[in-house]
Design brief:
The protein has three helices and four strands. It has helices at about 5-10, 45-55, 80-90; strands at about 30-35, 60-65, 70-75, 95-100. The two termini are about 30 Å apart. About 15% of the residues are buried.
């Protein structure tokens, strides 16, 4: 246990801290990320990317914003990672930039 964890337990008490046995509490495993797809120029491109990402395990939602070339997606971190998502986007022939 780190010094910070020990100090927090001293101040807050053990019953107020979340279970961090996996490194983060279960409610933080859901991640929302915005990706910029630099070559997404048409509705067909947006639909193609959306359909491919929605079919991946662990993806909760996918929203494309064509005017900004954004893909906003929410996923479960233990089931899928940004690297896997990026790999599938690249496999479709598109380039992505991680925004936030």
């Amino acid at each position: 246990m780190s010094w910070y964890s020990q100090r927090a337990m001293q101040i807050l008490g053990p019953q107020q801290l979340p279970d961090l046995s996996y490194g983060y509490p279960p409610d933080l495993r859901q991640v929302t990320m915005t990706l910029i797809i630099s070559d997404m120029r048409s509705g067909e491109d947006a639909q193609k990317i959306s359909n491919a990402l929605r079919n991946l395990p662990g993806i909760i939602s996918v929203k494309t914003i064509l005017e900004r070339r954004w893909v906003v997606l929410t996923y479960y971190l233990p089931q899928i990672s940004l690297e896997i998502i990026g790999h599938h986007i690249t496999k479709l022939g598109y380039h992505y930039i991680h925004k936030s």
